[in-house]
Amino acid sequence: MTHTRSRLDRGRNALGPALELVHTGRAPTRAVLTTELGVTRATAGAVATELATLGLITVDPRPGTATGSQGRPSHRLAVAEDGPVALAAQVHTDGYRAALVGLGGRIVATAPACEAVDPDPAQVLGEVVAAGAGLLRETGRRCIGAGLAVPSAVAEPEGTALNPLHLPWPAGAPVREIFNRCLTEAGVPVEGHCGNDVNLSALAEHRHGAGQGAAHLLCVATGHRGVGGALVLDGRLHTGSSGLALEVGHLTVDPQGRPCHCGSRGCLDVETDPLALLEAAGRRPGPEGSLLDQAGALIGAEYPTDDAVRDATRQLIDRLGLGLAGLVNILNPDRIVLGGLHRALLLADAPRLRAVVAERSLWGRGGSVAILPCTLDHGSLVGAAELAWQPVLDDPLALAVTAG
């Protein structure tokens, strides 16, 4: 009896780690799950069966061997395609979007994007939550939680947006409180979480994208306006003592540069964002599409042929390289991923960017740091969902309790 109970306890303790392994794609088979958990085959089988009973994963009943592999065939594991979802929302300077995101970072459904942001946070969050609630009704999916990505540092534990510099919102808006109130009013009785958009994009890239396997992942990205950064250490976001770490947008890369919203000059935030690219290339922002889309399209279409665009792109690459080199000196990451316009800069001339980072970092060791483009199309939305999924990853059995 004692032996049976101890095996059961070990299995229950392994449920969360096992779900995270399947969620991040690191355990595609039961054999891999057994090895990663360090348990017996019987315990791994029981864990997989329990997660399948909860409706979170599927276990292929027929053992199979991957092409070219050796050893005994093993049951394949996958996230349940018809399983529960998280409601994810993102607000940025050019609008907002709602989506439903399942395990594995899969976007199940999205609502049409809105291209305007009201000065009242309650109005915006009410609208985006209503759009998400509509998706839940249409799909009939069970919602386990909700996550919100905003272009601002989010103070913890209050959940306030301290500096939404590029939104017409008041500083210190209690976005988590408003988000949860809107969820209740929309008839979505789940807990709402919120975080900085680049932080959440970094978390998503680490679990499902270009950052998988990195021990110290640095993410630097432009939003539709401005620049943000994030650090993932051993699979967890480094947010500092109160959620405000990695405000990399306010590193100075040109002391004589543009005035910044923070009161300084020449910050990464205003020297390497979409508006900076358009201005440096002598282009006026157009009425169609976001600044981010316009700047990315300009590089993609005219970098090879237009001297002004090429010079502007190289100018931004050099300034981004200076900023990244400073971060490499301080943080010593083993991988850097770049998103938004920075992804387009990297794809336009990766050797130039890597050379600047190597030249300006200590001992030239920055040249050995992998610099990769983000791979997720909607990283902040997926990352917002990760906030909602985390309590389930920590304790999958809580789903059975809430279902009851």
Write the layout of secondary structure elements.
Elements lengths: L1 H22 L6 H8 L3 H13 L3 E3 L17 E3 L5 E8 L2 E7 L5 E4 L10 H19 L3 E8 L3 E2 L4 E2 L13 H11 L6 E5 H12 L7 E7 L4 E7 L2 E2 L30 H4 L2 H7 L10 H12 L4 H25 L3 E5 L1 H8 L1 H11 L9 E4 L5 H16 L3 H6 L1
Parallel strand pairs: 3-6, 6-9, 10-13, 13-14
Antiparallel strand pairs: 1-2, 3-4, 4-5, 7-8, 10-11, 11-12
Protein model, in words:
By secondary structure, the protein is α/β, with parallel strands linked by helices. It folds into three domains: 2-64, Arc Repressor Mutant, subunit A (Orthogonal Bundle), CATH 1.10.10; 85-199 and 380-403, Nucleotidyltransferase, domain 5 (2-Layer Sandwich); 212-374, ATPase, nucleotide binding domain (Nucleotidyltransferase, domain 5, 2-Layer Sandwich), CATH 3.30.420. Helix content is 43%, strand content 17%. It contains 14 helices and 14 strands. The chain is globular and about 65 Å long. The two termini are 28 Å apart. It comes from Streptomyces sodiiphilus.
